[in-house]
Fold:
Amino acid sequence: MTESIPRILVFIPAYRCEAQIPRVIDQFDENVQQWVDTVIVIDNRSPDNTLSATIERSKSRFTQCRFIAWLNDKNYGLGGSHKAAFRYAIEQGFDYLIVLHGDDQADIRDVIPELERGAHLDVDCLLGARFMSSSRLKGYSRIRTLGNHVYNKLFSLSVFRNIHDLGSGLNLYRLDTFREFYYKSFPDDLTFNYVMLLASYHAGQRVRFFPISWREEDQLSNVKLFRQAFKVLGMLGVFFFKRGTFLTYEMRTQPFESYSGKIVHSIDRRK
Ligand SMILES: Nc1nc2c(ncn2[C@@H]2O[C@H](COP(=O)(O)OP(=O)(O)O)[C@@H](O)[C@H]2O)c(=O)[nH]1
Ligand SMILES: [Mg+2]
Structure:
């Protein structure tokens, strides 16, 4: 019966999070590992010790699932790391990709009850939401919360659907839906998620949200808040009028031909 169990790859994008990544790895208790086939941390050439901290902590943690530490050949941005992860997951025959940010703001354990009740089986995107009534926010500023609510509304109005988050740090994707690499020209920076979401609705994919917990403690956000807010608003404006045509635009400032990298460390202690 093992063939019917979907193979899940958890992808952890990491950049400058040497303090948080050990805590992220600690989230993978035995119960979580039973749900997951492989965990891959993709380091975007962090200038700090993110990669060595990752490898060190992984050694004692992963006993039930496979673990891979991957180093991108260049810093491809958060969106670029997603492209590397999707490509790897599809090439390796996984069924689902779970994205978990490497800075310990989200918690992988929030998605396990969703998997237990089979919420992933009939969707293309199962997206963690920080702004549903049962979401739990800790240390997130009022102004950012308000800003997110406003943007969620604007995006909701543009796609005629109820959007509860434009891009949290915990999301699940059915890989069958993403075989075609239509998202290659999407931004490589932190706005990747926004465009992915618009594209998912435009393509008629089944998108569902689930409430998550989210904390802001020692994380350093790399987002230039106002600059990104204006950029995103501009993108939404163009999408509103151009729809599918907008999604075919080249949105990268520096287009890469491939999003390559290599495995620098792996562990497989499964019996
Ligand atoms: N800013 C940035 N984040 C990256 C990159 N590659 C991976 N990440 C990860 O992407 C996640 C989100 O970035 P962050 O700055 O925390 O954005 P925020 O949580 O939306 O404020 C973090 O876990 C980073 O470690 C990159 O090139 N730049
Ligand atoms: Mg963050």
Summary: Residues 101, 103, 105, 219, 221 surround magnesium ion (ligand 2) (CB under 6 Å). The two ends are 17 Å apart (CA to CA). The first strand starts at residue 8 and ends at 14. The CA atoms of residues 92 and 244 lie 30 Å apart.
